[in-house]
């Protein structure tokens, strides 16, 4: 009988019912795992077949969505551009005729890719050509082999690509995850059928088997319900690798607890807890997928195989791409969305294959980059003696605790400066290497081209026209090489010029991989700078209008305070059989050294009242109180992200509005052309029809791109949180519709009551109130300042130690 082994693809199994991964710990079978019978093995195979079918259906549906969206977009762009493109083509062809070239000269022009020399009125805007162009827009590849020339098409492309990037981004990333799971499931099935290697229970199944004993162990009072601390303890115990340093963060606990409290009762009972475990199993499985070295190796190998297979097809079928080395370079440039445009599929068959290979490969590339980034962050934090912590508030507390008070205001700008220096140093290194590869080769090619033109016997007018079709500028001097290096690591890839030597093309692959890692590690700091800027904008609006509701300071303080209250909830719970709502309000309002006005305090009271609701005796059970705090935590967190979403949009509008007149003044463009260039750059599509030609324009480009990438990152993260919360509320609303309990014995939750503000004074606590001093539970090199329980309303605290603008970010 074979011993269960952990094949590399095991953590990627994805049956919906069990979220399967290997039921082993460090490669060894689970203790007491029974030997499987033929029936159980057949059942396991059926689950794997089901997982394969589910993955295949999801991939097919999402690919179909992207296909239809790009097809419709291609048809519309085709309709807007075709007539203008034909007119331009005919005008160009007429110029060729007017020059009176002889047959040999025409053949020479055709050999140097002068367009429309013989084709007359043919254009790129047929059905497949339009869809191909639309796909390069929504994936931000933007080869730049063609571009829109009409104003109507450009306006449509701005709105179409903005929506398409978000839609395609979600679809392609999901496709990538399911592609890896599909391959992993197929691999496990192969190992089981042909090599008799068994696989164990899924993550959720293993966890469910542990629920009963853990539930009884924690539920000492025998009530059959759990509060948030008990939920956190059980979730911590369910992780086989649990220790004192990896307890689930409150963001995760609050999320799974609010998902599990389906009857809105304010506690978690035995019937609801399996749902909590299921939600936690998803998070834990995703975390293991990102952190396990075997998973990383498996995904990298699958991606490399995908790139090699695509390159083999392009080299064999697509004559316009060339040999296998060039095809591999083109495939990598495509899947990283750099899209320099020096090579692109030209036949219909190649473009059809390109669509599916790119749609599926882009998602896998994104997933691999995310997993690699997680490992890099883990390695860096380990080297610094810190644990890997994905909670956005952990980094913030450690950062504040290790800083002197006087340095907090300048700490973020200094880190932003450090990030910019790191990025630019990497760009300079790449520029030096690219210049060494390409500069001499470019000079030789320019001299050869000039000599070749001189030998064709062109007349003076013909020579002037021919020279206008070529660029004799030096692209690979140091400044040009710097811009190309910057285009590579930001994946803009205008395509105005690209390396021609095999050595430089091979170096692009290595340099781009490193550059994406460098840029990714600095995105967190750039994102913090953006959040700080947006917070300043809202605070300025609040200062001008005199309305505190525009300020986000209070939301950040509320979230910080709730974090501390939850960490110290055991102390609060132990003092009361039932917690007076007035006491809970005081705990939530215990903002450390908080300096707020009455309007802001009213806003906090409104939030707390909404979370607590009304109780018959002015008190609340500790279990209910903890879940209420969890809901309040999620509400404040989501609203903070929504504010960041609006702030990033407003900040980009300001940046965009400032940049248009700058480029209008520095370049020979009008305002419309400058706006088009700035959008194509911001979205990293990089068609290359417009590029800066002045020194000032190139210098400003670096600032604009770094600022816009930071804005785009904040926008996407905030959008995902906001939309995810909205979708979750809609699903809960549909699930609860028509299922509310009726009758006098109905179980009513805290949200089913009017606000506390309508109840009048709160009764006195059941036990004498003793203020408790809390300490931060976050590890740090220095102790966080302690803070007392808040005083009665009207108390004016001292200025805040909590920096209202330094909001942490966790990107991976």
From TrEMBL:
GO terms for biological process: stabilization of membrane potential. It is a multi-pass membrane protein. InterPro entries: 2pore_dom_K_chnl, EF-hand-dom_pair, EF_Hand_1_Ca_BS, EF_hand_dom, K_chnl_dom. GO terms for molecular function: calcium ion binding; outward rectifier potassium channel activity; potassium ion leak channel activity. Residues 108-179, 302-376, 474-530, 654-720 form the Potassium channel domain. It is found in: Membrane. Keywords: Calcium, Ion channel, Ion transport, Membrane, Transmembrane, Transmembrane helix, Transport. SUPFAM superfamilies: EF-hand (SSF47473), Voltage-gated potassium channels (SSF81324). GO terms for cellular component: cytoplasm; plasma membrane. It holds the Pfam family Ion_trans_2. The chain crosses the membrane at residues 51-77, 125-143, 155-176, 296-315, 321-340, 352-377, 416-437, 506-523, 645-663, 699-727. This is Potassium channel domain-containing protein.
